[in-house]
Design a protein that fits this description.
Elements (H helix, E strand, L loop, with lengths): L3 E8 L5 H14 L2 E8 L5 H8 L5 E6 L1 H14 L3 E5 L5 H5 L6 H10 L1 E10 L2 E3 L2 E5 H8 L2 H7 L2 H13 L3 E7 L2 E7 L1 E5 L3 E2 L3 E2 L11 E6 L4 H13 L8 E6 L1 E6 L4 E4 L2 E5 L2 E14 L1 H14 L1
Parallel strand pairs: 1-2, 1-3, 3-4
Antiparallel strand pairs: 5-6, 5-18, 7-10, 7-16, 8-9, 8-15, 10-13, 11-12, 13-14, 15-18, 16-17
Length: 305
């Protein structure tokens, strides 16, 4: 059986990238991968690297966090190349959504023995996102969640940044059109999810999935810091839509206009502003996942059906 050709692309700036690069090369070569090895300190270089090697490989294996994967999404979809994920970031929410373990040998095993599964991409003003795009409180969090905070505190850095951001949050008014229906909200945070997890393990909606051809939106009304802290357990389980002060919408095409321009955070990076057009691009990306993950998704689909 011929060796599989893969581009192994690692962001050595990610939390575990530099330490795990050599280990990943060794593990994948043992499984008969013919590797083209590339590392980068700048996520902005990733699309060009993928496009440059698209005719030379059968798949792309990326080591990094959600920001690294986000940077690769458009080029991967354009090239039609399958994605293997080695979670090396701080939160690894896209990997969590797909049931990919953070232990490197286990993640490599999914790439070598797993199956391909088509997942959706979200788009806001033409910018792709895997997990969630949001405005308001999350933007303040992103400004405070520096590389130093991530390195020092890991996932706990998200909570520390969120508490600081709460103190500086300002409400805004939003006019939202979701699949043709109009809504008006006063909010401190609006999030539009494509996947299931974001923000270090929060869940965008209880039944959210990365392959349901649907976007899930929630809006948080202005409320006290104490009430927001009490809401956190529900946000981890995705049940926050059942709480007072939380508005929830679902759809394939969402437009958001705000009373002042609001910056938008896509998978942890500030990339665009309102007014914003959101769309879901169904089945746009093929990813290696485990058979157990696929079984769980089928069972969940039957339960919802």
């Amino acid at each position: 059986m011929p060796k599989r050709r893969a581009l192994l692309l690692v962001n050595v700036k990610s939390r575990r990238g530099e330490a795990d690069f050599v280990t990943a090369v060794d593990l994948l070569r043992r499984h008969d991968f013919d590797l083209i090895e590339r590392s980068t300190l700048d996520a902005g270089e990733i699309p060009q690297i993928i496009r440059r090697h698209r005719e030379m490989v059968d798949c792309v294996i990326i080591g990094g966090g959600d920001g690294t994967l986000n940077a690769a999404a458009a080029a991967l979809s354009e090239a039609g190349l399958p994605l293997g994920i080695l979670p090396m970031g701080t939160a690894n929410d896209f990997a969590r959504t797909l049931g990919i373990p953070t232990a490197l040998p286990d993640a490599c095993k999914i790439i070598t023995e797993g199956v391909l599964h088509a997942v959706d991409l979200g788009s806001v003003n033409g910018k792709y996102f895997l997990n969630v795009a949001s405005m308001g409180l999350s933007v303040e969090c992103a400004r405070r969640l520096t590389g130093e905070v991530k390195r020092r505190w890991g996932v706990l850095g998200y909570a520390i940044s969120a508490v600081d951001a709460l103190k500086a949050s300002r409400s805004f008014r939003a006019s939202i059109t979701c699949d043709g229906e109009h809504h008006r909200f006063r909010s401190i945070q609006i999030a539009v999810g494509n996947g299931r997890h974001y923000g270090g393990g929060l869940t965008v909606a209880e039944d959210a999935a990365i392959d349901d051809a649907r976007l899930d939106l929630y809006s948080l009304e202005p409320q006290s810091v104490w009430k927001l802290i009490r809401l956190i357990p529900a946000m981890r389980s995705g049940r926050h839509g059942q709480w007072p002060g939380v508005d929830v919408l679902h759809g394939q095409h969402i437009r958001i206009d705000t009373d002042r321009p609001m910056r938008i955070n896509t998978d942890g990076e500030l990339t665009t502003r309102t007014p914003a057009e959101f769309r879901v691009i169904a089945g746009a990306l093929s990813v290696f996942v485990s058979e157990s993950y696929l079984r769980a998704r089928k069972e969940a689909g039957r339960a919802q059906g």
